[in-house]
Amino acid sequence: MGEDLWDVFCGNSGCSRKVGKICSSGFLAIICPCSCINHIFVISVDILLLFIVLFIFTYKASVTKFLPSQKSRCSTKIPNSAAIFNGGLGLVYLGFGFWMVAEKPSSEDIVLPLYRCLMVLSQGFTWSLLGVAVWFKRHQLAEITLMRLCSIFAFFFAGFLCLQSLWEPIVENAELVKIVLDILSFPGAILLLFCTFWTPEYAETNGDTNGAALYTPLSCDEACGGSKINSEDNLTPFAKAGFLSRMSFWWLNSLLKKGKKKILEDRDVPLLRREDRAETCYSMFLEQQNKQKQKESSDPPSILTTIFFCYWKEIFITGLFALIKVLALATGPLFVRAFIMVAEGKEAFKYEGYALTGGLFLTKCLESLLERQWFFRTRLIGLQVRSLLSAAIYQKQLRLSNAAKASHSSGEIMNYVTVDTYRIGEFPYWLHQVWSTSLQMCLAILIVYYSVGLATVVPLLAILLTVLVNSPLGKLQLKYQIKLMAAQDRKLKAFTESLTNMKILKLYAWETHFKNVIEGLRKEESQWLSAVLMKRAQKLVLFWSCPVLGSAATFWACYFLGIPLTASSVFTFLASLRIVQEPIRLIPEVVSAFIEAKVSLTRIVKFLEAPEVDGRHVKKMFDGKELEESIFIKADRISWDNNSTRATLRNINLVVKHGEKVAICGEVGSGKSTLLAVILGEVPQVDGKVQAYGKIAYVSQAAWIQTGTIQENILFGSAMDPYRYREVIEKCSLVKDLEMLPFGDLTEIGERGVNLSGGQKQRVQLARALYQEADVYLLDDPFSAVDAHTAASLFNEYVMGALSSKTVILVTHQVDFLPAFDSVLLMSEGEILQAATYDQLMHSSQEFWDLVEAHKGTAGSERQQDHASSQKPNTSKGEIQTIYTKEEFGETSGDQLIKKEERETGDTGFKPYIQYLKHSKGFLYFSLSTMFHLIFTVGQLIQSYWLAADIQNPSVSKPKLLTVYTVIGFSMIIFLFFRSIFIVVLGLRASESIFSTLLSSLFQAPMFFYDSTPLGRILSRVSSDLSVVDLDLAFKLTFAVGAAVTTYSSFGVVAIFAWQLLFVIVPTIYLTTLIQSYYFASAKELMRISGTTKSLVASHLAESVAGAMTIRAFREEDRLFSKNLDLIDTNASPLFHNFTANEWYIQRLEIISAIALSSAALALTLLPEGASKSGRCSLS
Question: Which residues cross the membrane (predicted)?
Answer without folding.
Answer: 27-57, 78-101, 113-136, 148-167, 179-198, 315-340, 443-469, 540-562, 922-942, 962-988, 1033-1051, 1057-1081
